[in-house]
Write a structure and sequence with these properties.
Layout lengths: L1 E5 L25 H10 L4 E5 L5 H13 L3 E6 L8 H11 L2 E4 L17 H9 L3 E4 L6 H10 L5 E3 L10 H8 L8 E5 L13 H15 L4 E3 L12 H11 L5 H12 L6
Parallel strand pairs: 1-2, 2-3, 3-4, 4-5, 5-6, 6-7, 7-8
Length: 271
């Protein structure tokens, strides 16, 4: 089984600027040894590293870690996809280690960010190399993301954290994410969902409602579980979130959602 969404960082190194002191509980270094302890205790066998900084230095550090640890099955990194030399940068990172995807951090950018023509060479090269585009977005970005999926059907897109639904705006989120299921090159990550709930109001039933809707639209073959560790620890221990998700998924669908889909979509060679 594969945890398809985990982070590592060293505060003040490898261009690490987040999290800041305002997030005191996670404002410290998180290293691979601690990660693997959590993954093992949570009943998972392998993990996929996802960048947390808009930095190629951060990505190269993660690639170095993955190259030396067989239980790390790949890295979703970062490149400035609007840069004129984005294809060359992607090639360089791919040569440096097990790069399996790229994640521009779009959550605080313009609603139509994916429509920018400057992104097209980098995104086309992402697709040509068989890399996944992880979409760190909010519901307001989903229309633009859908247009991208239609323009580039060869590009596999994974929506991180279910596009960050808000508990008090379920209908707006549902109306935004539902139509994207028509694009067969789009899948969703069941990650980061506990974190979207206000402090002190964490309710597994709300998370179950989000998961049920994504299951209804995308089906068990286009959902991927990830812990979002260590960010998830702001709301719950690793194992608690894993158990909430595990119990929300029907037994026949667990092998796919908790590993098989990640291996297929990211074309993982180490599983």
């Amino acid at each position: 089984m594969i945890d398809a969404h985990v982070h590592l960082w060293r505060i003040g190194r490898n261009d690490c600027r987040w999290p800041g002191p305002d997030l005191a509980a996670i404002h410290r270094d998180f290293e691979v040894a601690e990660l693997l302890e959590e993954v093992n205790a949570g009943g998972m066998a392998q993990a996929l590293l996802v960048q947390s900084q808009e930095s190629e230095a951060d990505t190269r550090w993660l690639l170095d870690i993955a190259a030396g640890e067989p239980r790390i099955v790949g890295v979703v990194g970062w490149v400035d996809l609007a840069a004129g030399d984005a294809p060359a940068r992607i090639d360089a990172l791919s040569a440096a280690g097990p790069l399996v995807g790229l994640r521009p951090m779009v959550q605080d950018r313009a609603d139509n960010w994916y429509d920018d023509p400057a992104l097209r060479p980098g995104l086309a090269h992402t697709a040509a190399r068989g890399l996944v585009l992880d979409a760190l977005v909010r519901p307001r970005h989903l229309a633009s993301l859908g247009r991208l999926a239609a323009r580039m059907p060869a590009l596999t897109i994974l929506i991180d954290h279910g596009a960050k639904p808000e508990p008090d705006r379920f209908e707006a989120w549902a109306q935004a994410i539902g139509p994207l299921a028509a694009h067969r090159n789009i899948a969703c990550k069941l990650s980061g969902l506990l974190t979207e709930q206000p402090a002190g109001e964490e309710d597994p039933a709300v998370v179950r409602g989000w998961m049920d809707l994504m299951m209804a639209h995308f089906g068990p073959d286009r959902l991927v579980w990830g812990s979002d560790w260590p960010v998830v620890t702001l709301k719950a221990p690793y194992r608690q979130w894993r158990d909430i998700a595990w119990n929300a998924v029907a037994a026949p669908d667990r092998p796919a959602i908790f590993g098989g889909n990640a291996a297929r979509l990211y074309r993982l060679a180490r599983t």
